[in-house]
Amino acid sequence: MIADQPEWIALAKRAGMVAAPDPWYAGSPDLVSVLREEVAAGKRQLVNLGLIIPVAVNRLDRDESGVLLIAKNESVGA
Length: 78
Hints:
By secondary structure, this protein is an alpha+beta fold. The protein has three helices and four strands; from the N terminus they run ββααββα. The protein has helices at 31-40, 44-48, 74-77; strands at 3-4, 8-13, 55-56, 66-71. The chain starts with a strand and ends with a helix.
């Protein structure tokens, strides 16, 4: 994690990982879905950050690395 703010977090996305669900990469794990599954499972570290329904705010292609902004809930990410 790079930054934690009241409404969002910034994560370092590595090259090769899909950032958010994408039909082109069906079946490949993506960062947002993994976060959602871990929040649903009650992973304490993510729940303590205030993540409710993580939403990607920006987009990074699978082959790119960089900073991915994640809204902590859907109302912030809209």
